[in-house]
Amino acid sequence: MPRPARVSPERILAAAAVEFAAHGYAGAGVDRIARRARVNKAMLYYHFRSKQGLYRALLRDTFGRAADRLRASAATGTTPAEQLDLVIVGIAAFIQQHRHFAAIMLREIAERGAHLDAETLAALAALPRIVAAIIQRGVDEKAFRPVHPLAAYFSMLAPMVMYLAGAPIRERLSAEHFGGGPMLDHDAFVRYIQDSTRRALDLHARPTR
Amino acid sequence: MPRPARVSPERILAAAAVEFAAHGYAGAGVDRIARRARVNKAMLYYHFRSKQGLYRALLRDTFGRAADRLRASAATGTTPAEQLDLVIVGIAAFIQQHRHFAAIMLREIAERGAHLDAETLAALAALPRIVAAIIQRGVDEKAFRPVHPLAAYFSMLAPMVMYLAGAPIRERLSAEHFGGGPMLDHDAFVRYIQDSTRRALDLHARPTR
DNA sequence: GTCTATACTTCGATAGAC
DNA sequence: GTCTATCGAAGTATAGAC
Questions:
Q1: Which positions of strand C lie within 7 Å of protein CB atoms?
Q2: B122 vs A5, A132, A178, B114, CA distance in Å?
Q3: How confident is the model at residue A185 (pLDDT cuts 50, 70, 90)?
Q4: How far apart are CA A129 and CA A189, in angstroms?
Q5: Between the CA of A175 and the C1' of D13, what is the distance in angstroms?
Q6: SS3 for A90?
Q7: Lowest-pLDDT range, A37-46, A87-96, A133-142, B7-16?
Q8: Interface test with A, best of B136, B147, B162 (most A CBs within 10 A)
């Protein structure tokens, strides 16, 4: 009895994730979001002030969940190398659980962060910070060679986001242009990223040039 | 004197690249494209049939130029490892010369290739094929360890696209959240991708686990 | 081939009743 | 808090003169 009938905002956010991921900020329709959430459009404007307000609320929520997930993943590891392995599978799992996260990130990058306010930027900044802290510790403990943490961060995050988000295009390509070739499955790709990340940071590997 | 006044289509394509990169397919305004190209809107519809026709013509053109560039880069190398180094700098240079290529690619991935027709897909497929051929040759010559070529392709392309396209967001972040930290410059990042690619493919590196 | 003017549609946002 | 009805802006596309 305490709650009157508050089911709307969560459903609206979920519907907004689908719509913004599918059509982008400009292409998204507030009408479609409301219909998908089984909520009246005026109700949507009542909870969130505008299309922009809804979009930003969604991004803050999504980035916050992602950061929580990465921190939890890292916490279960002991050595920095282990932690990076765990963070990598954590990222992959998060993207799979929030199928629209990747598309939203890709679009926001392409739009030069046009819709990000200071609060959303702060939530986003947590992600590279978590990874950078692990790498820095590895460098300090002489387990990793000294690399720029941001370079390593992009090298593990970007391929996974693009690979997972690019699956639909890849399937059309493999049918028409790479017929019959052995397809790359999800788990194998995640292991490749783990391996190449370890190799990139390995202190003892001989120089390659 | 020979040419009557044919300057339009190229200018339209260039203007469309800016507009589509900045606002996405749905967000792009045909009015703005026409104005930026200093061409009448009706003229634009005369040369290209529709907004979609213009968009596809732009993508085919851009992917075609990228493939030409990669082939030219690879041709100047001798060993597969050398060729990959050259391809990596070729990709980086291409993105810098066509500043909007990265954003358009990112958006198209996010939109699940919704605007790609068969012809555009064929032009896109050339890119992974060029890289895969180099890697396959390296594996055949026992210079590389056997990896899935597509995994390696994504691991070199994705970070560069995302890093270069993400520069605007990164600058806002570094100012507000990573104040004073040593910034990662472009050339250093390209070298990191070259290094990590070599390390990932290195046949003789000891196993890391 | 090039321009002006406009028809037609879609969509974000709000007013106002309940 | 929830709904219906609608306004006003913006945008794609075309008709038709030159």
A1: 1-5, 10-16
A2: 52, 39, 11, 15
A3: confident
A4: 24
A5: 35
A6: helix
A7: B7-16
A8: B162
Does residue A95 contact residue A87 with C-beta atoms inside 8 Å?
A: no
Which regions of A1-146 does DSSP assign to beta strands (E)? none
Cα(B165)–Cα(B172) distance, integer angstroms: 13
Beta bridge partners of A144: A202
Cα end-to-end span (Å), chain B: 70
- What is residue A37's predicted lDDT score, i.e. its pLDDT? 93
Domain ranges of chain A: 55-201
What distance in Å separates the CA atoms of residue B69 and residue A1, rounded to the nearest whole number? 67
Residue A3 CB partners (closer than 8 Å, separation 6+):
none
The CATH number that domain A55-201 falls under is: 1.10.357.10
Q: Which residue has the tokens 């009448």?
A: B40
B207 in reach of chain A (CB within 8 A):
no
Judge: A148–B182 Cβ closer than 8 Å, yes or no.
Answer: yes
A26 touches strand D (CB under 7 A): no
For chain B, how many residues are written? Answer: 209
What pLDDT, on the 0 to 100 scale, is given for residue B4? 41
Query: CA–CA separation, A153 vs A90, rounded Å?
Result: 14
Encode pLDDT of A10-47 as tens digits. 899 999 999 999 999 999 999 999 999 999 999 999 99
Q: Which residue of A has its CA nearest to B82?
A: A209
Q: Which two tokens stand for residue A104?
A: 């939203």
| Burial state string for B108-142 with b = 16 or more CB within 10 A and e = fewer than 16 | bbbbbbebbeeebbbbbbbbbbbbbebbeebbeee
Residue-by-residue DSSP string for A72-87 = HHHHT-SSHHHHHHHH
Q: Are B192 and B201 in contact (CB under 8 A)?
A: no
**CA B60 – CA B53 distance, rounded (Å):** 11
